[in-house]
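Chapter review: from sequence to fold.
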Amino acid sequence: MVRSALPDFEAVRIADIVTHAPDHLTAQQQALGLVSSAIPFDVGTLATIDPATLLWTSCVIDGIALDPEREAYMFDNEYRQNDLLKIADLAVSAEPAAALSQLSQSVLEQSPRFQLLRRMGAVDELRCALVHAGSCWGSFEIYRSDARGPFTERDVDRAISLSDPLARLLRLALLRQSGNLAERLEDAPGVLIVDRNGQIVSRSVTADHWLAEIGGESSEPAVIRSLVMKLTGGTDFTLSTVVPGTTGGWLRFHATRMGCDDDAQVSVVIEPVKPTSLPDTIGRAYGLTPREGEVITWMTRGLSSKEIAVRMGISPHTVNDHIKSVFQKTGAQSRQQLIAALFFDHCLPLRERGAVPGPWGWFIGA
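The C-alpha cell string follows.
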C-alpha cells in the first residue's frame, strides 16, 4: 500500500521540535501532541527505544496520571507475557502500526492486555513502532474509550505515515541533547547553525572536531552546502548523508530546517557512524563474548537462528552453540526470559534513576 506523504504542517512541527526542544522528554511530549492532532485519542504514551535491544528506555504519558502499578503491569506484559501486537514484532513488520480492533473477537479474548484495557474503560489500542532505516527508535501506544470508538483503518494508516518521521525526530532530539552532554560521551555529536547559502553562523566545540575530520575546519565543506541547498529547495524537514573521515570511519550529517520562512536557518548535527549493539555493561555483567553479544542483539529483534546465521556469516549450528552459551551464562531458558532479564535487571533500574537515553541506543554513561 502506498502511504500518503506527511502534510507540510506536520513536517514543520517536527522540525520545530527537533531544533528547539531542550531535552528528550520535552521532545517526546511534543511529539505525542503531534500524534494527538493526527489521531485523536483519550490516553497515550510515547517512548524511546534502544534499537539494539528493543527495550523501552524512557516514556511520557498524556491523558491519565502515572500509576506505578499499571506501568509495572505493562512492562510485565511486554517482556514476560505472550500477547498481541508486541512492539518488537511491529518493529520488523512491513506495517509498523496496528490496532487491536483489527483482530477478531475470539483472538482478543486471549489477550491479557486487552482484558486489562477493557476493565479500564478502553475499547481499543493502537500501537506504532517508530522505525527509520531499519532501526526502531521509539513507539507510541494510544487508547480510546467508548465515547470515541475504535480506531479506523485510516487512523492506522496515519500512524504508519508517522513512523519514520517520528523515529527521525527522536533520533535527532537525542543527538542534539547529547551534544550538550559532551563530557559524558567519548564521541559527542557536533551542532552547526547554517544560513540558507551554506555559510556557518555558529558551531559547537565538538563540531569543530568533526569538521577537522573531513578537512573542513577553515571553510564550509561541500557536504554542508549540498545538504542545505537541497533541504531549503525541497519539502523535506530533514535530510542526512554519510561522509568518510580522513582518519578512518564515517560521519553522518543531519540537516534540519529551523522554520518555514525563505531565510530560515538550518541546524546541522554531525555524528560518528556507530553500529547499534548490546551495551558493554551487559556483556561484562554476564561474561559474554563479543560474538555472544551480537547474537543477543539479533535475538532481541526476533530473528531466527537461520536469519542470525546469515547476518553474522556463520552456520546455524554455530549460532545455536552461541545461544546455548548465552542461556547458560544468563540463566535464561528462553528468548522471552532473556529479554525480560535484560529489561528488568539492566534497563528498568536505569530508567528509574532518570538516566538519559543515548543517541546510539542504551543510556549515556551507563
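Two observations follow directly from the output. Strands lie at 43-50, 55-62, 97-99, 122-132, 135-145, 190-194, 200-203, 238-244, 250-257, 266-272. The domain at 188-272 is CATH 3.30.450.20 (Beta-Lactamase).
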